Amino acid sequence: MAAVSTSLRSVPSSASPLRPLRPSLFAAPARLLFSAGIRAVSPIRVAGPRRFCCRATSPIAGMAEKGKGKVEVFDSEEELAVSLAKYTSDLSSKFTSERGAFTVVVSGGSLIKSLRKLVEPPYVDSIDWSKWHVFWVDERVVPKDHDDSNYKLAYDGFLSKVPILPGNVYSINDALSAEGAADDYETCLKHLVKSRVITTSDKTGFPKFDLMLLGMGPDGHIASLFPGHPLMNEKEKWITFIKDSPKPPLERITFTFPVINSSAYIALVVAGAGKAPVVQTALRDSQNSEKLPVQLVSPEGELTWFLDRDAASKL
């Protein structure tokens, strides 16, 4: 146990006190828009948790059959955030009901902003936050109060506003080197697998997180897995480190693709016109022999793209 204690980092004691959970009705789903022309379509019910998808009349909808996942396009980033909150809340209900825990992996960047509706009614009062276990798909090796810290970003914008148990928030040990922090975080995950907080994939044996909430860089990078970098090909490790990141800061830790792709659900959240060319490359058939990292996201479970109108403008 001593080997993993440094990874079990808690939300600082300055966080607001836990709020009692109150039953509340789910908000109505956001209007869903879909296709290259951003035209409205009628949502339909699908099996499993309360979800909405589009009728497969759009050429984009057919991409789900090609292994590229479901694609949901929204008229604005605000509508995207509303739908993402419902999607996350529904999966929270599903997994807490089925196994009494919900393992959620978040990334940095604009993803945390897109989770903002979860800290508002009805979700802040209806989600059973005590069952959440929160992890990071990657982290910059900087102090937790540093502006580059993904932990700080998530704490300021999300964690400090919801009553997740401090002991269920797993951040890196920022006192260690990049290599040491990666090893320590992997040891932490192995402990949580052994204690059955995290399940494992029957297909791969890698940890199987319930939900990964991922953003994407304008170069197509996912987590801290960058185009053309050797770490894209890592097949054995759960967590690894990088000391030559193309984006500062140079030192980071990151989940590897085998762990990312063992997930039960992945939401790829992309907004903004600056990312439209990469979205086009990822979702349209590409003849490029060298794949972008985002094109390697292929979970054994379900992949859903959450795009705003600008990000989908080239589809």
From TrEMBL:
Q: Quote one Gene Ontology molecular function term.
A: 6-phosphogluconolactonase activity
Q: Which GO terms describe its biological process?
A: carbohydrate metabolic process; pentose-phosphate shunt
Q: Keywords on this record? A: Hydrolase
Which InterPro entries does the entry link to?
6-phosphogluconolactonase_DevB, 6PGL, Glc/Gal-6P_isomerase, NagB/RpiA_transferase-like
Output this protein's name.
Probable 6-phosphogluconolactonase
Q: Which residues form a coiled coil?
A: none
Catalysed reactions, semicolon-separated = 6-phospho-D-glucono-1,5-lactone + H2O = 6-phospho-D-gluconate + H(+)
The annotated pathway is:
Carbohydrate degradation; pentose phosphate pathway; D-ribulose 5-phosphate from D-glucose 6-phosphate (oxidative stage): step 2/3
Where is each Glucosamine/galactosamine-6-phosphate isomerase domain found?
76-305
Q: Cross-referenced CDD domains, in alphabetical order?
A: 6PGL
* UniProt record similarity statement: Belongs to the glucosamine/galactosamine-6-phosphate isomerase family. 6-phosphogluconolactonase subfamily.
Give yes or no: UniProt keyword Isomerase: no
Q: Is this entry keyworded Phosphoprotein?
A: no
